[in-house]
Amino acid sequence: FIMNNLSNTELNNVCLSILEAIEKDYNHYYPHVYFMFYYGVRIGETFNYSIAYDNNSSKIVIYPQKKNNPRMHNLIDSETLENLEKLHIKSDIFWINKRNLQRIIEKVNPYRKLYCGKKCIGAHIFRHNWVKQQLALGQQIVNINGMLGYTWQNVGTSYAISKIYY
Predict the structure, then answer these.
(1) pLDDT at position 2 over 70
(2) CB-based contact 96:5 (threshold 8 Å)
(3) In angstroms, what CA-CA distances link 50 with 13, 43, 122, 144?
(4) pTM assigned to the model
(5) Residue 69 contacts by C-beta under 8 Å, 6 or more apart in sequence?
(6) How far is CA 147 from CA 73, 127, 150, 162, in A?
(7) What's the rounded Cα separation, in Å, for the pair 83 and 95?
(8) Alpha-carbon Rg of the chain, whole angstroms?
(9) Which of 10, 50, 73, 137 could cross-link 45 (Cys pair, CB 3.0–4.6 Å)?
């Protein structure tokens, strides 16, 4: 069958659609998806207190799931701190977990099956989208790599040139 490539606008619309569906029907997971959409956070980093607020710098700090550098982001809006508080309150509820959220994202995704290369892509779509949105805002790939926690340029570049298919 023929695979169709999503444009950057279509990709962003898919992510917004997922975000809105989760806010409406699975609100207890909204803070997790909020951070994936607005901060490019991995699904695993939304659990286990990996996201914190640094009072000294007034920035969000994300402690990496993988062996990358911790990263700091400016607050996007006042909703960020509210969602951070909700995220921490829900971190100890056993049924709010990464696998359940991944299933929900797959369920509410309007395209059901999306691929990046030969790999089916679920929650990680938000990270791809975040990189593409940062590029659209004029950020340089070297800065995006820093915001993702990477010390070498190939990773952010791979997100930037990746094609998402359905």
Answers:
(1) no
(2) no
(3) 27, 10, 20, 19
(4) 0.92
(5) 146, 149, 150, 151
(6) 7, 11, 8, 18
(7) 18
(8) 15
(9) 50
